[in-house]
Amino acid sequence: MKQIVVIGGGPAGVEAAVAAAKGHSQVTLISEGPIGGRTGWDSLLPSKVWLHAAELAGVAEHTAEGVAIGAVHVTPTEVLNRIKQVAQRWSEREAQRLQAAGVKVVHGVAAFHSPHELIVRNDDSQQTLTADAVIIATGSVPRFPPTMKPDGQRIIAPRFASHLNTLPPDMIVIGGGPTGSEFASLFSRLGVKVTWIVGAPGVLPMFDPAAGAALAAAMTAHGATIHQVDVERAERTEGGVVVTTADGATHTAAMAFLAIGRVPDLSRLNLAAAGLEVGANGQLAVDNYGRTVAGHIFVVGDAAGGPMLANRALAQAWIAGRTAAELSAPGYCPHTVVSAVYTVPEIAQVGIVSGGEGELQRVRASYTASLKAYLSDETEGWVELIYDAVNRQIRGGIAVGTHAADMLAPVALAIQTGATIADLAAVFAAYPTLSEVVFAAARAVK
Ligand SMILES: Cc1cc2nc3c(=O)[nH]c(=O)nc-3n(C[C@H](O)[C@H](O)[C@H](O)COP(=O)(O)OP(=O)(O)OC[C@H]3O[C@@H](n4cnc5c(N)ncnc54)[C@H](O)[C@@H]3O)c2cc1C
Ligand SMILES: NC(=O)c1ccc[n+]([C@@H]2O[C@H](COP(=O)([O-])OP(=O)(O)OC[C@H]3O[C@@H](n4cnc5c(N)ncnc54)[C@H](O)[C@@H]3O)[C@@H](O)[C@H]2O)c1
Question: What are the record keywords, sorted (predicted)?
Answer without folding.
Answer: FAD, Flavoprotein, NAD, Nucleotide-binding
